[in-house]
């Protein structure tokens, strides 16, 4: 599953866009470099029912922003992304996909 597909599924599961979840995480201080991934995963599981894979994709965005390594762009296979910038504002408004 691509990073973007993880984020789109998170939106389906939670009803919140990745940007909204990222803002909530920042309000909780989870963007602080000292906060461990396990703490964030626990929050995402308890409050939103997200598993580890989806949680780790969101943690990347919380900690690093929407840019991913270009090595994931244009490759073949299930982990392929269309762009090195993830879309955080809702899958239905993503200009990079045809919904």
From TrEMBL:
Give positions of region: Disordered: 70-99
Query: What Pfam families does its record include?
Result: DUF4287 (PF14117)
The domain of life is Bacteria
What protein name is recorded for this chain? Answer: DUF4287 domain-containing protein
Organism equals Luethyella okanaganae
